[in-house]
Amino acid sequence: MPGGPACAYVARMTGPRYTPLAQSLPATVPFVGPETQERQRGAPFAARLGANESIFGPSPHAIAAMQATASEIWMYGDAENHDLRASLAAHHGVRPDNIMVGEGIDGLLGYLVRLMVGPGDTVVTSEGAYPTFNYHVAGFGGVLHKVPYKGDHEDPAALFAKAAEVDAKLVYLANPDNPMGSWHRGADIVAAMQALPAGTLLVLDEAYVECAPEGTAAPVDADDPRLVRMRTFSKVYGMAGARVGYAIGAPDLIAGFNKVRNHFGMNRAAQAGALAALADGDWLAHVQSEIATARGRISAIARENGLTPLPSATNFVTIDCGSDGTFAKAVLDSLVSLGIFVRMPFAEPQNRCIRVSCGPSAELDAFAAALPRALEIARG
Amino acid sequence: MPGGPACAYVARMTGPRYTPLAQSLPATVPFVGPETQERQRGAPFAARLGANESIFGPSPHAIAAMQATASEIWMYGDAENHDLRASLAAHHGVRPDNIMVGEGIDGLLGYLVRLMVGPGDTVVTSEGAYPTFNYHVAGFGGVLHKVPYKGDHEDPAALFAKAAEVDAKLVYLANPDNPMGSWHRGADIVAAMQALPAGTLLVLDEAYVECAPEGTAAPVDADDPRLVRMRTFSKVYGMAGARVGYAIGAPDLIAGFNKVRNHFGMNRAAQAGALAALADGDWLAHVQSEIATARGRISAIARENGLTPLPSATNFVTIDCGSDGTFAKAVLDSLVSLGIFVRMPFAEPQNRCIRVSCGPSAELDAFAAALPRALEIARG
């Protein structure tokens, strides 16, 4: 029997047997973290302006809640996230069964893709949009179709048309957009959804919506089965390291997460911190104001250096360096070598830009001091 | 065209399109959490002795580290878990590339199963062993084969023989065992591994090993490709709510996690807390001593009530209630109704027992006070 058994024998000599899909995946990381870069360069960054973290920090009440929970961390977190879901529901005027709390939007996107996407299933996103979403789609064997930005905006009409064309199970749209900082009015997205195919779920990532103009959040019913919205405590709420995100959607979809999620996966202190952060509207308003100030400052620094800041509805400003991707990458590399952690868009023509997170004066002073030299180096 | 297109049309009318696997999964939870039970009963528990959490708490240094990190939680955690992996490597006398840190053993088991198990792939475990592992296997479409315990011990020889019989990709073995508290000498497991099939990866869950007798940890080379060991800060280290576990294994296997894990999924304060906890050997010794005392006390309480405590190498004691599963369930339900949170084994004949976590005197006093009444109620 030289056929099956021999093959089986060979397979069994190779150690752990991965799935064909796992075997095919690269060991990539969607982003290289700042700590990794600090270890590579052998020095800490002077300003951490690359990951759209909120240097303004979390609410003092959130800090106090997390500190108070530290001694209770021997207890697993509430698997139902009951109190946080109840508060979020009240905050948004929806029901708790419209809310799923998870380990950041990244974690929730992973669960969502797992529920919907198997090998060969099609998914649509924008060329140059959030790479962690793409990572999850690839990780479950999905086939990504990408449409270009329209100017520096994601293009809902093109996204939904492509979804119809390729019969996509999911279409991803971030509003406001990362990495460009651009945005659509929520009403315009809802209008565009008339062309959303019936078999396509819209994943509307509103991670930055708390620093966008009034009217940016999509005015949709939480029970609308056509979309799921993603929100987070990682950006304006200043709790990226806590890992708390949530999805808003129709109860059937929300309940679906219970089939695959890590039920006891939430950090107990993070649950308490998010609850306190949500209740502290004053801190949110303070950070929103600081972000507005910082956006102005970053834009001014860009202009002083002959560069063009793009309008932003986020906690970062994307700066057009006025040339191509090679030049912007040189500016970025120079900034990094000077101790300023920033990032840049991945795709053409957006990669003519660098992306600078908002922060307090000290960090922006450091950026202002380094940028002229970085441009000098980049210009050779 | 009444064939394909019509079917496609019907499918597209049904809303979000789940994968066939996701469609088939129930929305279950491996465990009902104590907070859920408290909401159901309308009152908090007087003693939380059901989830093998460490009521003795985490190291004061770990608490301080988490508190200090609260104001820095605006930063994502280090995606590489560099410092924690380096410390764990030094602690175990292995290399950092032998270590993968993840969101608790639960999170790591999910990633591992995802890497190895697709629809129809076979996996072996013990009847009544850790249900969250089973949840992950079912969640990726794997087919579970279960072997009975031998007495109240997991049976490595039977597990490995079954793995050979069904050509399993994974075989799960907890040592010490949960829910029975029993254990094997590590050397005996290594000896039994001579019968481990070449194509089967042993998942050796050593979550409780820090409270087991010397010699319980498997004396294997970290580079041994035949197994991966799982460890956690949730049990003896008292940080269940922080969600920090780690895998020890061969570098190829460890690197595989990078294909699918949530790279920025770790809570930054939890990383700092685990680092401090690992460095505090005095606290570990203190908790180990408290656990030994509590095991003695729980055993004494059981005997005073005519029940039989089983030997334990864990931070809980499994108590034989002397009858069948129906009786033990009645005892458990009565304890719960009296405000004592405990759990019990799921499978016959282990379900003749209840399982009581170690804790300080106050909690065990509450258990001691409730048990006679609970037995009275259970006996009708």
Bin the helical content of chain A.
Answer: 40-55%
| Count of separate DSSP helical elements of chain A | 14
CATH class annotation of the largest domain in chain A: Alpha Beta
Proper CATH architecture of the largest domain in chain A? 3-Layer(aba) Sandwich
Characteristics of this structure?
homodimer, 380 residues, alpha/beta, Aspartate Aminotransferase, domain 1, Aspartate Aminotransferase, domain 2, 2 domains, 7-stranded mixed sheet, 3-stranded antiparallel sheet, 14 helices, 12 strands, 13% strand, globular, pyridoxal phosphate (chains A, B), PyrdxlP-dep_Trfase (chains A, B), transaminase activity (chains A, B)
Kindly summarize this structure in a few lines.
By secondary structure, the first copy, chain A, is an alpha/beta fold.
Descriptive notes:
Chains A, B: Its cofactor is pyridoxal 5'-phosphate. Chains A, B: This is Histidinol-phosphate aminotransferase. Chains A, B: It holds the Pfam family Aminotran_1_2. The structure is a homodimer of 380-residue chains. By secondary structure, chain A is of the alpha/beta class. Chain A has two domains: 34-55 and 282-378, Aspartate Aminotransferase, domain 1 (Alpha-Beta Complex), CATH 3.90.1150.10; 60-279, Aspartate Aminotransferase, domain 2 (3-Layer(aba) Sandwich). Chain A is 41% helix and 13% strand. In chain A, helix 4 (60-70) packs antiparallel against helix 11 (268-279) and helix 6 runs parallel beside helix 7. The longest helix of chain A is centred in the last third of the chain and has 24 residues, at 281-304. Residues 1-12 of chain A have low confidence and may be disordered. Chains A and B meet through helix 1, helix 2, helix 3, helix 4 and helix 6 of A and helix 1, helix 2, helix 3, helix 4 and helix 6 of B.
